[in-house]
Each structure stands twice: as structure tokens, then as C-alpha cells.
Amino acid sequence: MAASLDDTIYLDLPAGRVVIAMRPDLAPQTCAQIKRLVRQGFYNGLTFHRVIDGFMAQTGDPKGDGTGGSGHPLKAEFSSEPFVRGTVAMARTSDPNSADSQFFIVLGAAPWLDGKYTIWGEVTSGMEYVDQIKKGDPADNGKVTNPDKIIRMQVAADAEKAPQKP
User: Fold this and answer.
1) Tens-digit pLDDT string for the chain (166 aa)
2) Residue 53 burial by CB count (10 A; 0-12/13-18/19+): exposed, middle or buried?
3) What is the DSSP letter of 127?
4) How far is the C-alpha of 115 from the C-alpha of 82, rounded, in Å?
5) pLDDT at residue number 53
6) CA-to-CA distance for 60 and 49, rounded, in angstroms?
7) What is the DSSP string of 11-55?
8) What's the pLDDT score for residue 136?
9) In this structure, are residues 59 and 103 in contact, taking their beta carbons and an 8 Å threshold?
10) Terminal-residue alpha carbon distance, the chain
11) Among candidates 154, 157, 148, 159, which has minimal Cα distance to 13?
């Protein structure tokens, strides 16, 4: 099922554009917050500070070390949707209601996460670009030295309205 342009996110990475179909049917509050942050330019320039080969790539922390957020924690919106390659979900602490702005993209099936993290989207194209994100040190919980950055995130509906540069 194709998402509307208002429920589609463009995630521009150094390697290319990733398209994420949002899932407001699973996580309406989380999707609303992600869109608000995207429209504020919150994610532009943020790093993929934690990347574990074969597992996931995490971003969305303005501090770049896994401890930051937007200051607006969300209530958990867990679902029975499985964690498969391309799933986009919120990172959190041990408190289920601590997700804020950090999210991760699953690089391979991760059934041990099922029902424990809020899923808000799925990559519909560009996973090959996600696969190219610089990986972190497996001995240091995936911490990345000199990490790749998000060039820009946009709600597709806004990108379509933006005037084209000549």
C-alpha cells in the first residue's frame, strides 16, 4: 500500500535518497511528532551515531552520542508488526515511554524487537543507500567514529510543493 505524500518521508543520505512510508495506522502520535520535527529541519545534519552491521542504523540525536532528543517524549505505540529489513522504529531507553526523536532503520530481520519498540514507517526504496551507512565498532555497541550524516529529511508533500531550482 503506497502512503500519501503527506505520510512519506524523504531521507537524503550521502549515498542517495531513502523513501520511508509512514505508518500512522500503527503509531499516529509518533508519526505526527516525526513530521513536526522533519518540518522544523530538526534531523538535517544529524549523525548515524550507532550502526551495527546486519542489525540497524540509529540517528536522530542532536548530541550525536545517543543521549539527546527533542525534549518531547512519546507514549509507546507498540504493535504486532514484525521487525523486518527496512522497518523504521523509535529508539528508547528501558522506559517504554521514553522515545523522543531518535529512530533506527532495521538492516535485517530482528524478531527479538517485536512488540517492544514503536514502529512508525518502512523503507519503500533506497535500502541500498541505508546499507552504505558507515558501520560502528561492534565492541563498542555500534558507536561510529566520524559517522555519516543525514543531508536532509523532508515530508514528500512539502518537497513536491517546493520551487525547483533552475
Assistant:
1) 568 999 999 999 999 999 999 999 999 999 999 999 999 999 999 999 999 999 999 999 999 999 999 999 999 999 999 999 999 999 999 999 999 999 999 999 999 999 999 999 999 999 999 999 999 999 999 999 999 999 999 999 998 676 655 5
2) middle
3) H
4) 8
5) 96
6) 9
7) EEETTEEEEEEE-TTT-HHHHHHHHHHHHTTTTTT-B--EEETTT
8) 97
9) yes
10) 34
11) 148
Q: What grid cell was written down for 150? A: 543525514
Tell me 125's DSSP state.
E
Count each helix (H run) and each strand (E run) in the chain, helices first: 3, 8
Provide the pLDDT for residue 161: 72
Domain ranges of the chain: 5-157
Amino acid at 130: V
Domain 5-157 architecture: Beta Barrel (2.40)
Number of alpha carbons in the 13 Å side-chain half-sphere of residue 59 = 26
